[in-house]
């Protein structure tokens, strides 16, 4: 059972990430974050609680990533609103949490167990180890919950338990108290009654398109002409536009790589200068790590065998001595620093217990500014020499045309680009737009 659960850990972790991150909840800003080495940048205060700037930045990045993973190309204006939205949501969350605490709305261990037993994480019924003959088997799930070892081997289970105890059950109790005094008006009662009892009857028929055959040899030119004359409106298209465009992708530069690598090296030095390195590592992971699956648990990855992690991470984790912290390690996820907490043979193979802090690598503000200057300079040349000629002379830019598209349609090859559609249908031919930007390019 344990071995199977380890194999399924990535699937279960994805389920819990969707559950927790989807609501941007379970954030523990903490107090006095850091390693005692100076003033900490604050994003602000909520109900007397300090909100560390680094932790707030991570929450904003998580929200932006979540929106991108939903296949949404975030307009720059909306992107700039994300910090405000995250802040307002956290204000509500902290105020509600403080109210629940003040009212003593906690949850006992028995209540937590019963809740988790009766309300499995969404999607966990699809995990094979909890199924019998392809169907979710409640007895297997309950047996898993009853085994104390599983809480040590699977950090996601501890997180779900803590989340249930701190937020879900107290939140339900608060809802009950709030709704206890709610009284529906006569108008609301009548409206709900109509919705519940109103009925309608209608008849319909379906025709399979395969039953409708047409002999094209019997369709004459005169018939086509008459049909066109009778349905001219169906063949009229709206205004159309065709745009030339150049774009510079927002690529990570060597400068960006060096900045993030140095930040992680500085973070390691800060941790190692602390009296308690492990405690310092855990606290830094909570506020500095970009891995939403482990950050709240102090970067804890649990026990894992060779080959579980990406190769770069794997080789360093298994070469480190217990208690040691790695130099920055680059993987396709970003830069990691790794703390090995234990090594032992389990089920006949060597396994490692480790924590990590992840810093995702994205173009820095300096890089974006440089690209902006480059595209603005190119625009000046275009105004002087013409768009196409200047574009063909330029290096490091992509030059193409969109093809015809109608107003309100998604722009071919560009997708969503705030301001592009408005420019296409409001400006004269040969006009050149100001710099436009989306998440991928300028």
Work out the count of structural domains: 3
Strand content is 5-15%
Number of strands: 12
Question: What is the top-level CATH class of the largest domain?
Answer: Mainly Alpha
From the 3D structure, determine the CATH topology of the largest domain. Triger factor/SurA peptide-binding fold
Write a structural description.
There is one protein chain. With 442 residues, this protein is of the alpha+beta class. The chain folds into three domains: 2-179, Triger factor/SurA peptide-binding fold; 240-252 and 365-426, no CATH class; 254-359, Roll (Chitinase A, domain 3). The chain contains 16 helices and twelve strands. It has helices at residues 2-7, 9-21, 53-69, 76-102, 109-118, 138-146, 149-153, 155-180, 186-197, 221-230, 254-272, 277-288, 311-319, 365-385, 387-393, 420-426, and strands spanning 42-46, 49-52, 131-132, 135-136, 240-241, 244-247, 300-305, 329-331, 334-346, 349-359, 398-401, 405-406. Strands 7-10-9-8 form a four-stranded antiparallel sheet. A two-stranded antiparallel sheet has the order 1-2. α3 (53-69) packs across α4 and α11 runs antiparallel to α12 (277-288). Mean pLDDT is 78; it is low at 1-38.
